[in-house]
Design a protein that fits this description.
This protein has 233 residues and is of the alpha/beta class. 27% of the residues lie in helices and 24% in strands. The chain is built from five helices and twelve strands. The strands form three sheets. Strands 3, 4, 5, 6, 7, 8, 11 and 12 form an eight-stranded mixed beta sheet that branches. Strands 1-2 form a two-stranded antiparallel sheet. It has a two-stranded antiparallel ribbon with strand order 9-10. β5 and β6 form a beta hairpin. α2 packs parallel to α4. It is globular. The chain starts with a strand and ends with a helix. 39% of the residues are buried.
Length: 233
């Protein structure tokens, strides 16, 4: 796969795949939702805290360009609330995917499928030492819209199939109230009421060697994506 150089926030360069985007330019929003394309938007995160190389992006960027007949769009997100606010909803509208899958790293020994996102209590600061106003993901949420939103992806079935393939897998209803849950929350509210309502999922992967190597984590994310695509078909 060809690679190109992209600047990170700290001014250093990292090689990323040409069919991936690190700091994407976002066009004007489409005027209305149309039938979703045979595309899956998959994101991983960049460095933060002790994760100088984030294994989630390392895994996502190795995904193939297509899985079965779905085009895979890979995007590296910065661990920054403002960055996610400024880019994620527009990326979804730009690519009009059939499914959105976010990946991040968290202390665990399993591939953890997050079922729930909350709109509140985002009180931990990001890599720019910032946090959302009043701890909210979606500002001015209408009063008739719940503050908690759930994925409609079959997490139970996905977990069971991953276990059958030999992976440690689990389901969670607490994604951590940080950028991981913030991204899932943003996606689920963005697609609410659209043809892909609820078709967003966050996958937490373990840190490297807890117990899986980076190569194993790449294989695990690929297996999870294969299973998700099979469900779409």
């Amino acid at each position: 796969m060809n690679e190109t150089n992209a600047l990170l926030n700290n001014g250093t360069k990292e090689n990323i795949a040409e069919d991936s985007c690190c700091c994407p330019a976002v066009p004007a929003l489409i005027s209305k939702w149309t039938k979703p394309k045979k595309t899956i938007l998959v994101t991983g995160y960049g460095p933060f805290n002790q994760y100088k190389v984030n294994p989630s992006w390392e895994a996502v960027k190795t995904l193939p360009k297509t899985i079965q007949d779905y085009h895979i769009v890979k995007v590296k997100l910065t661990v920054c609330y403002r960055y996610v606010e400024d880019h994620l909803a527009d990326l979804i509208k730009q690519h009009n995917p059939s499914l959105v899958v976010h990946c991040g790293v968290a202390p665990s020994d399993s591939f953890r499928f997050e079922e729930v996102a909350h709109n509140f209590d985002y009180n931990n600061t990001d890599i720019d030492n910032e946090k959302p106003l009043n701890g909210l993901c979606i500002k001015d949420l209408p009063t008739d819209v719940p503050n908690t939103i759930c994925t409609k992806v079959d997490t139970k079935g996905l977990k069971e199939k991953m276990i059958q393939l030999g992976w440690n897998a689990s389901i969670s209803r607490d994604a951590g109230r940080y950028l991981c849950e913030f991204a899932l929350c943003t996606s689920l509210y963005t697609i609410r009421g659209t043809p892909i309502d609820g078709k967003a999922l966050f996958i937490h992967i373990p840190p490297v060697d807890c117990p899986y190597s980076q190569e194993d984590l790449c294989k695990g994310i690929n297996d999870a994506m294969e299973l998700l695509v099979a469900d779409l078909n």
